[in-house]
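queue> holo job accepted (adenosine-5'-triphosphate)
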Amino acid sequence: MQQEKTLSIIKPDAVAKCVIGEINRRFEQEGLRIVAAKMTRLTKKQAEDFYGIHKDRPFFNALVSFMSSGPVMLQVLEGPNAVALNRQIMGATNPKEAAIGTIRADFAESIDHNAVHGSDSLDNAKQEISFFFTPEEVVTYVKNTELA
Ligand code: ATP
Ligand code: MG
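queue> job finished
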């Protein structure tokens, strides 16, 4: 299957719940490799620019304020079909509609505090990865199946 890269953000609510490790365990278990990672706190401007597509939506100010309210874990995930696979592992935007066993079903409180972000298309993934990472910050490795 096609190897892809996608951008993942562990949002401030999930960081504060100390579930970074559990979320990353799920990604790795499902075949996604973490090929770049950066812990940071987004500025208001970064959050506004990143979610610029939603700037006319009623929830935009709340979204920007939440995304810049505390530290986030920015990551590039790589693997077969990574964009769609990550969205599947994340679950639906509204945790009340998220399938059992997904990250949002297990760790999100509400539609506006929903634990993780994931790119929604390959084109957006490329653009979002370059928003946060230089090419040099993204590494390459394959899973060592002899040790796993
Ligand atoms: P994300 O982009 O964060 O991965 P998503 O792709 O599942 O989420 P989008 O439609 O891109 O969903 O919305 C971006 C974010 O805006 C959502 O994660 C959510 O926190 C917030 N949001 C979306 N729709 C609503 C809504 N109706 N009410 C409140 N917040 C919303
Ligand atoms: Mg989205």
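queue> The two ends are 21 Å apart (CA to CA).
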